[in-house]
Specification:
Domain ABC transporter: 15-251, 257-509
Protein name: Ribose transport system ATP-binding protein
GO molecular function: ATP binding
Strand order of the largest sheet: 6-9-10-3-11-12
Strand content: 15-25%
InterPro entries: AAA+_ATPase, ABC_carbohydrate_import_ATPase, ABC_transporter-like_ATP-bd, ABC_transporter-like_CS, P-loop_NTPase
Shape: globular
CATH architecture of the largest domain: 3-Layer(aba) Sandwich
Radius of gyration: 25 Å
Structural class: alpha/beta
CATH superfamily of the largest domain: P-loop containing nucleotide triphosphate hydrolases
Largest sheet: 6 strands, mixed
Number of helices: 18
CATH class of the largest domain: Alpha Beta
Number of domains: 2
Family: Belongs to the ABC transporter superfamily.
Length: 516
């Protein structure tokens, strides 16, 4: 148990998992893992996809039964969690990334689901509505017990899940990637609520890929790697470099190591955007990208980063402006026009707008170039498609049991690499990446960064839109900063100001620099 920073004088744990293992056939998903959570503590659980986090939590929530020899103690007493009902009776509530609510029912009906009060043999809805008012008030809900869940926002639905756990007098709350679909303001409200629940004595397990969230919230962090326990750090011992080293077995500095050098070997102009605007969000914007250059597009939420990319790609109609590729102006009225002009776009929402989740890895990779495999205008050369998919899987390091496996069953990082592979099969001259590492683990991020670096070395012009400033600083050669729909400033390049988080935020917020 290296790097274990536990305090000897800390409160005894509510939960103590000892030597927990889980085997599926010949695959060992957990190998003797130990994990504990104290009352009134936020304990973060981190690790790459496949590290064992989900398996450990499914054992805790009653979805899986651990192997013989595993021990789970609640308040020092050994227990058997042989189903979700047993977990709930022990005071354990889980809020999954995909919320488990019935949208056609009201807030009160969801909170009481499975334990409805009855009167004269009928469900007493008046009692349910009255019974949840105190909890909703305590959590600061702006909706009522009578509102239908279908009419609530994602953040409000998440609050219903938390209210259900609190109302059931749960003593421990497991939160799995709770901010994935939340805005910055909604995330701040969730953090305030999580801290409130900690103050009230709940034990909270917080699972996230976002290290900033962990540093903001966690009292301790436990790291798993390759199905095994790596270590636990107390808050005062947490540093980005230490946590990353525990997760991936290498230093943070290796993450953003660039082998391409756009300043020394920047190629000719490849993309030229002039005065592009939509008449609503985006004001006239102009910029260039050179061969082998990684251009960052930064800015606050709502600044217009995605809207600008969609205008260039033809996904949204433009009011004015022009786009040229390799010195030739191209008419882009649709994404198909953009692809034919050599521009590819990675959407920020890979599940809704990018991938066909029910289709196989191979089918998704081949989707954009299936016309190349036509024989006599009617039949498909499936062998060619299989070979293309196999080459792409090897080139981008996609981890899948088979090219025929459904892409919906892959981890977030591997799904992203499948979508990237599809785009690369179109042989783009310009690649626009919108939040390329959103919802992927640390290891997959590193692999995507290496792929971006390799493409730059091969002469592709790349634009990266990202909300993660360390990512922008680490991988980009120049950075455009958007504010309220226009390009407010530029950093980097041969003679520009340094690319730093402070400089980006100063431009994004129009804050005056100290040196001014």
């Amino acid at each position: 148990m290296s790097e274990d920073g536990m305090n000897a004088g800390a409160a005894p744990p509510f939960l103590d998992m000892r030597n927990v293992s889980k085997t599926f056939g010949r695959v060992q998903a957990l190998k003797g893992v130990s994990f504990d959570v104290r009352p009134g503590e936020i304990h973060a659980l981190m690790g790459e996809n496949g590290a064992g986090k989900s398996t450990l939590m499914k054992i805790l929530s009653g979805a899986y039964v651990p192997d013989a020899g595993s021990e789970i103690l609640i308040d020092g007493r050994k227990v058997a969690i042989n189903g979700p009902m047993a977990a709930r009776q022990l005071g354990i509530a889980t809020i999954y990334q995909e919320l488990a609510l019935a949208p056609n029912l009201t807030v009160a009906e969801n909170i009481y689901l499975g334990r409805e009060p009855r009167r004269a043999g009928f469900i007493d809805r008046a009692a349910m509505n009255a019974g949840v008012e105190d909890v909703l008030l305590r959590l600061g809900a702006t909706f009522t017990a009578r509102d239908k869940v279908a009419d609530l926002s994602i953040a409000e639905r998440q609050l219903v899940e938390i209210a259900r756990a609190v109302h059931a007098r749960s003593r421990m709350l497991i939160m799995d990637e709770p901010t994935t679909t939340l805005s910055e303001r909604e995330t701040e409200r969730l953090f305030a609520l999580v801290r409130q629940l900690r103050q009230e004595g709940l034990a909270i397990v917080y699972i996230s890929h976002r290290m900033k969230e962990v540093y903001d919230l966690a009292d301790r962090v436990t790291v798993l790697r390759d199905a095994s326990y790596v270590g636990t750090l107390e808050r005062e011992a947490m540093t980005p470099a230490k946590v990353v080293r525990m997760m991936v077995g290498r230093d943070l500095s290796s993450f953003y190591k660039k082998e391409h050098d756009a300043h020394q070997s920047r190629g000719p102009l490849i993309l030229c955007v002039r005065d592009i605007a939509d008449g609503r969000r985006i004001q006239p914007c102009s910029f260039d990208i050179h061969e082998g250059e990684v251009l960052g597009i930064a800015g606050l939420v709502g600044a217009g980063r995605t809207e600008l990319a969609r205008l260039i790609y033809g996904a949204d109609p433009k009011l004015s402006g022009s786009v040229a590729v390799d010195g030739r102006e191209v008419a882009i009225r649709s994404p198909l026009d953009a692809i034919e002009a050599g521009i590819a776009y990675l959407t920020e929402d890979r599940k809704l707008l990018g991938l066909m989740l029910d289709m196989s890895v191979s089918e998704n990779i081949n989707l954009g170039v299936i016309g190349r495999d036509a024989l006599a205008g009617a039949l498909l050369d499936r062998g060619r498609g299989r070979r293309r998919a196999a080459e792409a899987i090897q080139a981008t390091g996609i981890r899948t049991a088979s090219p025929d496996a459904p892409v919906g069953g892959l981890s977030g990082g591997n799904q992203q690499k499948v979508l990237l592979s599809r785009l690369l099969e179109t042989r783009p001259r310009v690649l626009i990446l919108d939040e390329p590492t959103r919802g992927v683990d640390i290891g997959a991020k590193s692999e995507i960064y290496r792929l971006i670096d390799r493409l730059a070395r091969e002469g592709v012009g790349i634009a990266v839109i990202s909300s993660e400033l360390p990512e922008i600083v680490g991988i980009c050669d120049r950075v455009l900063v958007l504010r309220e729909g226009h390009i407010a400033g530029e950093l980097g390049g041969a003679n520009g100001e340094p690319i730093t988080q402070e400089n980006i935020m100063a431009i994004a917020t129009s804050a005056a620099k100290a040196a001014a």
